């Protein structure tokens, strides 16, 4: 069984992942309401990905006979002044998640909980990708600030969806359904 401090931190991160999913769904709905279908689809997919991250953590706790706790989350932000601000918020969110994932990894290491440390390694790799994607998207959004449809074209060209599943990803509780 993982160290109690790790279990508590991972349970907190489960809530953070669900909050991130909620925020991405709100961003997607904002873009859909503003008739940016590619940005909406991109962020709906991000919302599902964050939900699946939470469910991977749930599955790990269940598999290690640890207590799973579902904490409440705050309402997401849904109003934005322009098409760039939601992406800026997403990048800030990913940077915050990276910090928390690193702290949870360190907690496992401090407690010599090597199985939990190994579990968290996948999330560290994932956060590098998440931050890079949002940073790149923000750079493009800033460059095309005056012509947001170019951002739609960029998403269609560079992030068409349907990325292959990562075979090294942890199992999702409920099979991801």
Task: Describe what you observe in this structure.
The protein has 177 residues and is mainly α. The chain has one domain: Up-down Bundle (Ferritin), CATH 1.20.1260.10. The protein is built from five helices and no strands. The protein has helices at 4-33, 37-63, 85-110, 114-143, 149-158. The mean pLDDT is 94.
Number of strands: 0
- Tally of domains: 1
Gyration radius, to the nearest Å? Answer: 17 Å
Reading off the top of the CATH hierarchy, the class is best stated as Mainly Alpha
In this structure, how is the largest beta sheet organized?
none
Bin the helical content: 55-70%
CATH architectural grouping: Up-down Bundle
Let me know the average pLDDT. Answer: 94
Distance between the termini: 27 Å
Report the uncertain regions: none
Which word captures the global form?
elongated
